[in-house]
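# step 3/5: fold
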Amino acid sequence: MFLNTSSGRLKNVFTISFLLIVHFFYGQNSKIDSLKIELQKHTAKDTTRVNILNHLAFQHYRNNPPQAITYVQNALQLAKEIHDESGTARSYYIYGAINMELANFAEAIQNYDNAIVIYKKNKDLNGLEKSNNALGVLYTYKGDLELSLKHYEAAKLIAKQSNNTKSLHKYLSNIGVIYSRKGDYEKALSNFKNALNVNIKNKDSLGIINNYNALANAYYEQGNYPISLEYYNKSLHIAKNSKDSIGVFQAYNNIGNLYRQQNSNKKALAYYNKAYSIKKARFNIKNVTTIKNNIAGIHYENKDYDLAITAYLESINLSKEINDESTNLTTAFNGLGFVYLETKQFLKALEYFTKAEKISLKNDFSYELLDTYQGIAETYFKLNKYDLSLVNAKKLVDLANKSESLFHNKVGYGLLAEIYNIKGNYKEAFENHEMFKKISDSILNEENIKKIAGIEYEYKYKKELDNAALRETKLTKTVETTSLDLEKSRRNLLLGIITFLVVAMVLGSIIFYLKLRNSKAKTQNIITEQKLLRTQMTPHFIFNSLSVLQGMILNKEESKSVNYLSKFSKLLRITLENSRDKTVLLSQELEAVENYLNLQNIENEKITFQLYIENTIETNTIKVPPMLIQPFVENAIEHAFKIQKENCVIEIKLTLVDSKLICVILDNGMGIDSSERNSNQNKKSLATKITKERLDYLSKDFKMDASISIEDRSKYNAQGTQVTIQMPYSKIVL
């Protein structure tokens, strides 16, 4: 999980970093050549030469940072020499952009601050606007979202004051990034799409690439991978047409991250290698270390630990060469720590986690610290140093609460529960385990509603298919056994004819008839049970329930969504468990019905449910066939109140009358007669038909009467439908 989290974060960082500059045009080799010629011609030490040098630096800052540094240093030196404040501020700004690309963040901040001082002095609104935007990018990278948003809003305000409508799309995009990081995807997507429309109108290829990536990231974070991939491919197409090597690199890296998130490591590695093969992108060491870390992560996940160690060490050495202490370095240190933890080299693991901790604390890298504290706590736990593990697990939980990281919260509370349990502090162990379970449920809800739907769908329908296949196999075996028995009977019959012709023929006929009837009864019973199982919790109900759950989550109704999912899962488990047994306790059957009703009550508050059980009925001593009541309750919910909007009541009454167990289901809806008039006259309830067939077999099994009747309550001067089931049952002798 650590590796996936890290790779996803790095991907977002790259997308954000490229929002910094919006005036850069691609495929400008002719412009660079023209500027070089102009520089050769203009040898005078004046503002014109300063401007030419700054232009050249800016044209090279992405694809050739070393050359850009040479130009900007010459421009800055000349601007100071001739007291050109405008040129000096511009040089500082470009120097900040170059350092940003090279991951020299302290130098970048210093240069942007130097530029702002001069821009304020000269009341240069355009320069102030760009510098605030650049600092917004930088603080976004550092994880200070509020400070980042502050700078973006400041830049947007300046753009409005100066009537610079062409730059507003840039701030829409950057502010969208902040909302995406905060998890407010609706606002994020709105900002990105508005910015994209402006980019397309202005034919701004870099802006288009950035917003395609931003949209892809937002959909990626929501788990909508097909749409995310579509936008990444659009970004790649524009970058290739623009001959933007960094843009192509970025697209390959992002697509690799997308496949990695879906556990398609082979595809992910192929795209990472494509990105690494772009030589022009390697001028930016940050690009190389990112790809090295991602490739190392793939090797880790594939358990190729030696390859993972090699790649992480290469990334670390590259970062040290340029004195880069960015998140790429801490990611590599943490990565090595987890590799050594996995290979049980605990002292080495601690060594690298400690290095990561030092850098993260120094630079306030809160996300990386989460991984670090997790690694340290788990390593000390493996070393049986529970006190040290406890200290770091608490740090992990505290920081996870501040950062709102559910995954790290789950890991932290799980560790605390284990440690307290080992130390004999069972109260703390229990409380932390309860938090662990609660957060696990929250992760199940929040991280990917599509995963929930997929898991529930797969669990429900695959299990049903497996059960159906198993029953069909048993049915086939029964038929084959019957056929073999018939063959044997016939042979015996032929042999018997020789000596006892008449008697053998009579006995053979009786045996044949009994076996055939028994086989037919078994087959019919199996088919009936299969049909009944398919009527329970219909696909309509499941997908409706999951839609309701998704709505709750998107509305951030955490408590309500957790409660809903808990009841839904419990109902699903009880239904599947009860379907395997011939009889269940009446209390279990009623529990399943009550869970179903509770779930419906959350979803449909207009309906009131009432359950009456006669005092003489002991639900824990009576066993009944499962799944007899729920289909009729579901029919009432779906069909009885199509017109009626208020005062909707469903009652379930259980009574013993002359040793007969009677279940009556009443509703005050439109009534069965009205329902049939408003629908297809020939259409009958599948559940009703199957239940009637089943009761016929059960009455023989239990050797007691079993029946069902459905009546319109109008004949009793009341409104609605009445379903009466005489249920077969057996008593447990205590």
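# step 4/5: annotate
The longest strand covers residues 648-657.
# step 5/5: archive (pending)
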